[in-house]
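User: We ran a pulldown and think these components assemble together. Before we commit to crystallization trials, I'd like a predicted model of the whole complex to look at. Sequences follow.
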Amino acid sequence: MAVQWNTDADAALAQAKESKKPLLVDFSAAPA
Amino acid sequence: MSLEAHIKEHPAYFHRFDAVWTPTVLILDSDGIERMRIEGYLPKEEFRAQLEMGLARVAFMKKKWADAEQRYADVLERYPASKAAPEALYWKGVSRYKATNDHTVLGTLPAQFKEKYPESIWAMKTAAWEH
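Assistant: Here's a predicted model for the assembly, 163 residues in total across the polymer chains.
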């Protein structure tokens, strides 16, 4: 199952809080 | 829930979450509190084990003892040879103790560590519970 990546930190944190689910954050410097 | 932060597109996120190296992966609980930090590359199986340890830690810190115990047990079952396994065995026992307040649970851990992970630092941490 593909991961649906969010790029808005505030939105992702709000979604995690609303859904009461953990949030995975991936910090990368790899070329796109 | 997942958030992607690339150094060129979201440098402010690196500062906000104290990410000083790449790759860095965080697992935050639903309140945004960091519960796991993985810095650097890992082999796929070790990485998966670490991610599951993070989710177990989220459950543990939410005092969801049964959920935490099951998640740590899952790590042991799926990744028994991983670097995460000894820590999973430790916290699985602690989760059971937290759920039951039965201190004899902790007393069983030293023997389990001697059998499975005698060289682990987590084995040292259980030595005080040996009778």
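The mean pLDDT of chain A is 91. That may be worth checking against your pulldown data before setting up trials.

User: Thanks, that helps.
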